[in-house]
Amino acid sequence: xxxxxxxxxxxxxxxxxxxxxxxxxxxxxxxxxxxxxxxxxxxxxxxxxxxxxxxxxxxxxxxxxxxxxxxxxxxxxxxxxxxxxxxxxxxxxxxxxxxxxxxxxxxxxxxxxxxxxxxxxxxxxxxxxxxxxxxxxxxxxxxxxxxxxxxxxxxxxxxxxxxxxxxxxxxxxxxxxxxxxxxxxxxxxxxxxxxxxxxxxxxxxxxxxxxxxxxxxxxxxxxxxxxxxxxxxxxxxxxxxxxxxxxxxxxxxxxxxxxxxxxxxxxxxxxxxxxxxxxxxxxxxxxx
Length: 288
Hints:
Blueprint: E1 7-8, E2 14-15, E3 18-24, E4 27-34, E5 41-45, H1 59-62, E6 67-71, H2 89-102, E7 108-113, H3 116-126, E8 131-137, H4 164-171, H5 183-190, H6 194-210, H7 213-220, E9 224-229, E10 250-254, H8 261-264, H9 266-281
Parallel strand pairs: 5-6, 5-7, 7-8, 8-9, 9-10
Antiparallel strand pairs: 1-2, 3-4, 4-6
Helix pairs in contact: 2-3, 3-7, 4-5
């Protein structure tokens, strides 16, 4: 189905986003698609306590050259909580892979913001033939780079859902100093269950605790781009250099951006991402 919440094209027209709800054994997964269906697939995975909507400002910058696919991870946005409450990162990767199969996607460049980068990496570990390349945006490489305490640890379940002010306090370090937390994000958090909010965050940290990302990615051998806002207040910005342990990794800092450059500075973030994807999707066009 389509919705009026579309994205503006360069000519001023608005193309409706195609939305669908995929009924998987592990739970329903909400998907948004934009751009030409015969263009190279670009999968965007959001971070904890967010949804596909967090990429909205990026979409019109990416659709001229890509079929842009956004997925609400289990328990986020309009996706249901996973069957059995399994928020393990490996389970998220499997759910994403199954969703792409349902959409007929045979290969994609996969982009993850923040903890979405862990789901992206898990997908590549499980389905290496499906993932052409990986781009990670402000995804912490290891627990030693963590700056701020996990927001889930400061939430009282008896006070769920939190007030707007409480949510903005929890989310403040997710942006550069002085950036106003968007109301959309506040609404996304309030729409989650306490279990989804806390368990998904703990699962991300557990995934890192088992093995840091540079080691996982080096073993995969996939082309890698890392983009990091140099004003990140969740993860030590200099830790982006840890990804240089991955052969051929492109590591780039965004001056003045915090933890969420996809909202804070979409044009510069998209420009870096497009330069990377152009290298790994050149000449690719699908038959319709």
